[in-house]
Specification:
alpha+beta, Alpha-Beta Plaits, seven-stranded mixed sheet, 17 helices, 24 strands, elongated, disordered N terminus, translocase, iron-sulfur
Length: 580
C-alpha cells in the first residue's frame, strides 16, 4: 500500500477514478474503492494493532485486536435529501459498537476512529483475554524484542491482571519438525502459520485442535512441519510460539546488526536480511520485495550461511610445495602466479569464471582474459529442479550477468576447455569461485593434465587441493557487488561481516592479478570504480551505479522469465483474496 496521498482529487472526480473519500480520525483522505479499513488507516499513518491479519494471507478476523469505530451518514427518511457540509461531506453517524478493520472495506463518506474511549476499552479487553493464559516467560523467550504481544500489551494493556484462576497448561518445547519447535502455551491462535502452510506453501499440515482456552496448535496425525518453506511460519508468528532450532537461544535480537542483502543459492535472488554480531552470522531472514520473493524464502536457502562459517575456510594465500600447501603473503602469491602464467602461450591459458560471481568480478575476469590474451573463458552451469515457488531451476545467482558480460557462449566454452586439457592445447587454468569437481564434472585425471592451476575460493575444496596457487576469497556476506536474477532484475549484495584471516574481496584479487601481470599502477580503489567502467563498456548497464540499484533492485533487462510464487500471489490479489 502507498503512503498518505499528497493530493486530493475533486470529490466528484474521485468516484470516476475508483476512489472513495474516507474520514480517519477527523481527517479526510482518498483511497481506492475496496481497500480494507486496516490498510486505509495505514495510508493515513494511523496504527491499528493486529495479530491474525497479514496482507499476504487471507483475513479470518479471529484475533479481534484490530477493532475500530466505524461511522456512516445516517439513513435518510423517505423524501429527505442528504445534507452536506461546506467541504461537501455528509455528517457521519457513529456506530455504538466496534468493527474489525482487517476484513471490512471502506465506502464513500465512511468514518473510522482508531482512537477514543470505545476503541481503547475494546482493545484493552481483547488484550486482557490474550494474556489470561499466556505464560510469564518473556525473559527466556526467543521472541523477546520482536514480540508484538509485548509491544501491544504496553500500549493497550491494563497494567495489571484481574485473573485469579490457574492458567491453562499446554505442551511446551514440542518438536513439530526438523527445524522448528512449538511452545503451545505462547500461542495466541492467530492462525497465521496455518494459513501460510495452506495458502502459500501448499502443505496444509498445521491445524487447531480442541476448543476455547484448551485450543492447541498441532500437526496433522503422522505428519511433521518439514516443508522447505516451514521456517517462514517463524517469521510470521507474532509471539514466541514457533521458534527456530537453528537460532534458538543463540542471541538476543537487540544485539544483532541487520544488513540488507540477497540470497545467492539460485537465480531467484530472494531479498534477505543478514543478522550479525561480532563478525558472526546468526541468522538470515527474508526481506519484503514484491518483485522478487514477496515476503518468503526457502529454508534450504536461509540456512546455507553456515557453510561460510565452517572450519574449512581458506584464510591465507597458499603455494603448493611438493605435495602440500604452505601459507604465504599476498605479494609472494601474486608474483608466483604471474611468473607461472607467463611461462605459457596465451592460447594455452583458460579461465573458468563463475555465474556465482558478481557483475564486477565477472567484468574483471573478462579483463584478465583480455590482458593475458586468451579467448578461452567459461562459466559452470548449475541446474536443478524448480519447486514451482521460489527455487529456480538455475542454481547460479548471476547467469544473466555472466551472459551480458562474458557473452552468451560462456557456458558452452566449458566443454572446449575440458577438451583442451585432454589434448594438451590448454596447459594452465585459472579457476575463480568454482569447485570443478563438484559442479563441472572434472575428474582428478582431467586436472592432472594441467601444468598450472591457480584458483580462488572460500572453501578448501578439492579444486583448491589440486591447485598450485590458491587465493582465499570472500563469501556473499563478506563483500559488496551486484547480480542479475532470473527475471533480469539487477540487485545488490551488501557486506555484513569481514572475511576471515587474510582473505580478500574477490574483485580485489582479480584486480591485483591483472596489475601484477601488466605491471601497471592501481587506478581501481573502490568497487564503484569498477561499476563506472562496466556502465561505459556494457550497454545494458549504462547509467547504473551501486547507489542507483537501491535496496529493492532495478529492472535491467527482460528475460521472459517469471517467478511462480509471485504469479500466484498476483492472481490472489486480483481475486481480492489477499491485499498483497
Amino acid at each position: 500500500m502507498s503512503d498518505t496521498p499528497t493530493t486530493q482529487l475533486p470529490k466528484d472526480l474521485a468516484a470516476e477514478k475508483g476512489m472513495v473519500n474516507v474520514q480517519i480520525d477527523g481527517h479526510w483522505i482518498q483511497v481506492p474503492r475496496g481497500t480494507r479499513m486496516i490498510e486505509a488507516c495505514k495510508m493515513a499513518e494511523k496504527e491499528v494493532p493486529h495479530y491474525c491479519y497479514h496482507p499476504k494471507l487471507s483475513s479470518p478476523g479471529n484475533c479481534r485486536m484490530c477493532l475500530v469505530q466505524m461511522g456512516m451518514p445516517p439513513r435518510l427518511a423517505p423524501g429527505q435529501e442528504p445534507e452536506y457540509d461546506e467541504e461537501g461531506y455528509q455528517e457521519i453517524g457513529w456506530m455504538p459498537r466496534p468493527v474489525i478493520a482487517c476484513a471490512n472495506t471502506v465506502a464513500e463518506n465512511m468514518g473510522i476512529r482508531t482512537q477514543g474511549e470505545l476503541v481503547e476499552k475494546t482493545r484493552e479487553g481483547v488484550m486482557e483475554f490474550l494474556l489470561i493464559n499466556h505464560p510469564l516467560d518473556c525473559p527466556i523467550c526467543d521472541q523477546a524484542g520482536e514480540c508484538t504481544l509485548q509491544e501491544f500489551s504496553v500500549e493497550h494493556g491494563r497494567g495489571q491482571s484481574r485473573f485469579l484462576e490457574d492458567k491453562v497448561k499446554k505442551p511446551k518445547n514440542v518438536d513439530i519438525g526438523p527445524r522448528i519447535n512449538l511452545d503451545d502455551e505462547r500461542c495466541i491462535m492467530c492462525s497465521r502459520c496455518i494459513r501460510f502452510m495452506d495458502e502459500v506453501a501448499d502443505d496444509a499440515v498445521l491445524g487447531f485442535t480442541d476448543r476455547g482456552t484448551h485450543t492447541t496448535l498441532s500437526c496433522h496425525p503422522d505428519r511433521k512441519l518439514d516443508s522447505n518453506y516451514g521456517m517462514n511460519t517463524i517469521d510470521l508468528c507474532p509471539v514466541g510460539a514457533l521458534t527456530s532450532k537453528d537460532f534458538r537461544f543463540q542471541m538476543r535480537v537487540w544485539f544483532l546488526k541487520e544488513t540488507k542483502s540477497i540470497d545467492v543459492n539460485c537465480a531467484t535472488g530472494c531479498n534477505t536480511t543478514i543478522w550479525t554480531r561480532g563478525n558472526e552470522i546468526y541468522r538470515v531472514t527474508p526481506r519484503l520485495n514484491n518483485d522478487v520473493n514477496s515476503e518468503w524464502m526457502p529454508d534450504s536457502h536461509r540456512l546455507a550461511f553456515h557453510e561460510v562459517q565452517g572450519d574449512n575456510r581458506l584464510t591465507d594465500p597458499m603455494i603448493k610445495v611438493g605435495h602440500s600447501h604452505e601459507a604465504t603473503d599476498w605479494d609472494s602469491a601474486l608474483e608466483a602466479a604471474v611468473d607461472a602464467l607467463k611461462q605459457f602461450e596465451a592460447s594455452e591459458v583458460a579461465i573458468i569464471a563463475s555465474a556465482r560471481q558478481t557483475n564486477e568480478e565477472l567484468f574483471l575476469s573478462k579483463t584478465l582474459a583480455d590482458v593475458i590474451g586468451t579467448s578461452s573463458i567459461a562459466t559452470v552451469p548449475r541446474t536443478g529442479e524448480a519447486d514451482g515457488k521460489l527455487i529456480s531451476a538455475d542454481r547460479n545467482p548471476n547467469t544473466n550477468g555472466a551472459k551480458l558480460i562474458l557473452g552468451e557462449n560462456a557456458v558452452s566454452n566449458l566443454g572446449s576447455i575440458k577438451s583442451g586439457l585432454a589434448d594438451g592445447t590448454i596447459k594452465a587454468l585459472i579457476v575463480l569461485n568454482e569447485d570443478l569437481f563438484e559442479a563441472a564434472g572434472f575428474s582428478h585425471e582431467d586436472l592432472g593434465k594441467a601444468e598450472l592451476i591457480i584458483s580462488s575460493h572460500i572453501i578448501a575444496n578439492p579444486t583448491a587441493h589440486a591447485s598450485h596457487i590458491v587465493f582465499p576469497g570472500s563469501s556473499f556476506a563478506e563483500k559488496r557487488g551486484s547480480m542479475i536474477n532470473v527475471t533480469g532484475r539487477l540487485q545488490r549484495l551488501n557486506q555484513a561481516v569481514q572475511a576471515p584471516g587474510n582473505a580478500r574481496d574477490d574483485w580485489e584479487i582479480i584486480r591485483d592479478l591483472i596489475l601484477a601481470y601488466t605491471g601497471e599502477k592501481n587506478d581501481l580503489y573502490m568497487l564503484e570504480d569498477v561499476i563506472k567502467i562496466i556502465a561505459q563498456a556494457v550497454p545494458a548497464f549504462e547509467g547504473i551505479t551501486l547507489s542507483k540499484i537501491g535496496d529493492q533492485g532495478t529492472q535491467l533487462i527482460e528475460t521472459g522469465e517469471s517467478i511462480p510464487l509471485l504469479e500466484r500471489e498476483k492472481e490472489r490479489v486480483a481475486n481480492r483474496e489477499i491485499v498483497g
